[in-house]
Design goal:
transmembrane helix; seven-stranded mixed sheet; disordered N terminus; transferase; 30% helix; 17 strands; glycoprotein; alpha/beta; membrane
């Protein structure tokens, strides 16, 4: 029989043991409090949350065979259900800018903040939900000044930057006074200051790039001057600054200047701007400045406000920046307080003077417009190889440049004739879209538009009188026509549609694509490089609820898409092409339905 040992009354009342237990409980309590503050008020919380989100998103994945079976079932039209919601309810899921994936990568040259995409078999087959309380966005131009708070209920920027005029919470809205770190009194006054030195008005300048843009008030207010600015910033601790910009209806893109060329052709931008963007232009033997030089059109302007321009304790950095600009023969226009403005020279006449800093010209094998996953080069790109005169002042002013075939069109065989025919074709098609298909193009319901297969930008060129902007996407495997698009005074990026796009969910009102099948097929083997379901799910991620998708393709491929649309919660109809067009194309028009998670999931 076992023995039971009783604790003596003396032992139970031992004050020493009582205090040890209280100390232990107190330690746990204070540890929980400290952890709570770390999670709520520091980046650690964002990082841990992102890790958890990534793990949950991966729970939407099966093994490759199961995934392949699911994709085949959806493509066949025999999938009786809708595609699952991403199980963690991550309303801001960005497959190629995932903090958990990127956090383990190298910090050198900000590699970990560049796009790092999952493999095909790692991609989640799921739909990204809208946040609880989501509403159809406020329409342009009112959206420039206010948006719905619940569409992206992130107060971090308002709390940290509200005193600088970035944005503020106001009841159900975020409001945007138009300020920035270097222009707290508003972008309008700042632009007026720049106009003293740069020909912002009059049409000589049309395309601009705003580097490290915040919520893009600079680019938003430059629209008053008919300057179309593409603003970029990485996904970073400010949380969703590009998402705010796009919700406002301002052209913007998630991007980091790190180890690779930015996804634009050479000589794209008439104006490049940095307002406290903190890009170390002279680091790595001035590699970042040389990337700016690659993208800036000859005769174009570079404006930098903030560090290191006449900035305390940054005398060396400021001296180095001036030395690099001199070596590249940039004309100093002005140093006004903490703002410097340079003008890029026209022609390569003085490049031999660069040797004093050890800068070298890129060799003749370098294509300065090759920029999709191309490593930054520690050399100066030569624009003299680009056909024709592409300098600011030599090309037509806006809006004349829109309809005139630029010299870069001749990269295509019979390029000038193809350009003219493409322009007429899209004028005819847009008229059919509006008048016969009754699409919302030209109404206040459509502001942010994407053309997934832009070619010469004819689709966008036919819409410039409407209150919208178009992100023109040129596939990296297609002829390099993006330079033509920029010469016309439009904007766009290189991309491969077998990968996710670098934008937040719900950022486009209207997505258009002609010849979608050609974007996923290998032109040599004829086999698909990726599957249609993944591409349509990515389009759904980018599209706003109640937004529109238009696809032009062969009848067989349109029928294939039509079989899938109900599985991704789209309502679709199929139409004949406009009577004047040749070929066998048909047109699918789909609307993304506005749906939310069940209340039990919130």
């Amino acid at each position: 029989m076992g023995h039971i040992t009783l604790t003596s009354p003396k032992t139970r009342s031992n004050p020493s043991r009582k205090w040890q237990l209280l100390d232990f409980v107190s330690l746990i309590f204070f540890g929980i409090v400290i952890l709570f503050f770390l999670l709520i008020f520091t980046p650690l919380g964002d990082s841990l949350a992102a890790s958890g989100n990534q793990a949950l998103i991966k729970s939407n994945l099966a093994d490759p065979k199961q995934r392949g079976g699911l994709i085949a079932l959806i493509e066949s039209g025999k999938y009786a259900k809708v595609v699952d919601v991403c199980v963690n309810g991550d309303v801001d899921y960005m497959p190629c800018e995932d903090p958990a994936r990127n956090s383990v990568l190298s910090r050198e040259m900000n590699f970990y903040r560049e796009r790092q995409c999952p493999g095909v078999d790692e991609r989640a087959v799921c739909l990204v939900p809208a946040p609880s309380g989501y509403r159809v966005p406020i329409q342009w131009p009112e959206s420039l000044h206010k948006i719905w708070h619940e569409n992206m209920p992130y107060n971090k920027i308002a709390d940290r930057k509200g005193h600088q005029g970035w944005m503020k919470r106001d009841g159900p809205y975020f409001i945007f006074p138009g300020g920035g770190t270097m222009f707290p009194d508003g972008a309008t006054q700042y632009i007026a200051k720049l106009k003293q030195y740069i020909p912002i008005s009059g049409g000589a300048l049309r395309t601009a790039l705003d580097m490290g843009c915040g919520v893009a008030s600079f680019g938003g207010h430059l629209l008053d001057e008919n300057i179309l600015t593409l603003s970029f910033a990485p996904r970073d601790s400010h949380k969703s600054q590009i998402q705010f910009a796009l919700e406002r209806g301002i052209p913007a893109f998630v991007l980091m200047l790190g180890t690779r060329r930015l996804p634009f052709p050479a000589a794209s931008f008439d104006l490049m701007h940095c307002s406290r963007c903190l890009i170390p232009f002279t680091a790595y033997n001035a590699t970042y400045f040389m990337e700016v030089d690659r993208l800036l059109r000859p005769g174009g302007y570079l404006a930098i406000s903030g560090p290191p321009v006449q900035w305390a304790k940054q005398d060396k950095e400021w001296a180095d920046l001036q030395a690099v600009a001199r070596a590249l023969c940039y004309e100093l226009i002005v140093v006004d307080g903490n703002t410097v403005i340079w003008k890029k020279p026209v022609g390569d006449a003085c490049l031999q003077n660069q040797n004093e800093l050890g800068l070298e010209l890129c060799d003749d094998s370098d294509d300065p417009s090759s920029a999709w996953y191309v490593k930054l080069k520690k050399c100066v790109s030569q624009t003299s190889g680009i056909k024709g005169d592409i300098a600011v002042g030599a090309i037509p002013k806006w809006p004349q440049r829109l309809k005139q075939a630029p010299s870069r069109a001749t990269l295509i065989k019979n390029g000038n004739d193809v350009f003219e025919a493409d322009t007429r074709r899209w004028e005819r098609r847009i008229s059919y879209y509006k008048n016969s298909l009754h699409l919302k193009l030209g109404t206040s319901a459509v502001r942010n538009v994407m053309d997934m297969n832009a070619f010469f930008g004819g689709f966008a060129a036919s819409l410039t009188s409407d209150p919208l902007w178009v992100m023109n996407v040129v596939a990296d495997r297609k002829p390099s026509t993006l330079g033509v698009i920029y010469d016309r005074g439009l904007i766009g990026v290189y991309h491969d549609w077998c990968e996710p796009f670098s934008s937040y969910p719900r950022t486009y009102d209207f997505i258009h694509v002609s010849a979608l099948e050609s974007l996923i097929k290998d032109p040599v083997t004829g086999k698909n490089r990726c599957n249609l379901v993944d591409v349509l799910i990515e389009m759904d991620r980018l599209l706003r609820p109640e937004g529109t998708v238009v696809v032009r393709d062969s009848p067989e491929f349109i029928a294939k898409i039509d079989r899938i649309t109900s599985s991704i919660r789209w309502k679709s109809t199929v139409h004949d092409k406009e009577p004047e067009s040749q070929g066998r194309e048909r047109i699918l028009v789909a609307t993304k339905t506005l749906w939310t998670l069940p209340s039990s999931s919130h």
